[in-house]
Amino acid sequence: VETASLGIPQLPGLGNQNSATSLLAGSHTINVWYANPAHFRLAVPVPLSESDLIHNGRQVWLWQSSTNTVTKMQLPAKAPSGAAPMATPAPTGVPLTPQQAASEALKAVGPSTSVSVQRTVSVAGQPAYQLALSPKSANSLIGRVTIAIDAAKNVPLRVQVFARGARTPAFQVGFTSISYVAPAAANFTFTPPRGAKVKNVTLPAGAPHKSAAPAGQAAGQFQVIGKDWLSVAVLPASALAGLTGMGSASGAAGQAAQ
Length: 258
Known about the structure:
7-stranded antiparallel β-sheet, 258 residues, globular
């Protein structure tokens, strides 16, 4: 479950659970089944609908119940083992798993960071120890980042980001339940529902797997001021249109920084 409470004003697209900016407010649940790089499934349930991504060997299915559409992608026979069928970066860089969030947080560890070990906690029913990363500078708006790591499996189970002086996290992503077992093969099979519109895509052998740059950054509009815990990302208000997919952000002016 990913939860964000950043205190930001209402943004276009926040009400749309399929938009990138919806991850900036409220809670979102993602179900994950993982066997290996070629066999995994992600399900994003929202009220009255669900989106599923199923990777089963050389076949990849994308099912969106809200539009009753299915995209079937056939990977080339000579594709590198475990290669992704297409660039699927997390929207706006928001981490969707505790492992992703922990990796990003640990990149901040350096001379500007104080690291400590906190008391043992229980996350998703597993005993875990907690690392606390705290900025040494009192000017940082971030108070601390805590990472709960499974004491037996050494797997990040939860990451929480606290604003300075806050007692509740502004952002967190963590497992509510976890099973260290191989998922049944049935989880990776998919049959399009009756009446669904099916689009077939075949990727040619040797097709490049390009990585998509975040909106604004690709156009050279993304700028970072400062460094470490005192860095500020600055982008023009027009970049909001790229994040929401809603065209021009006519209601915004100037620049937004976060």
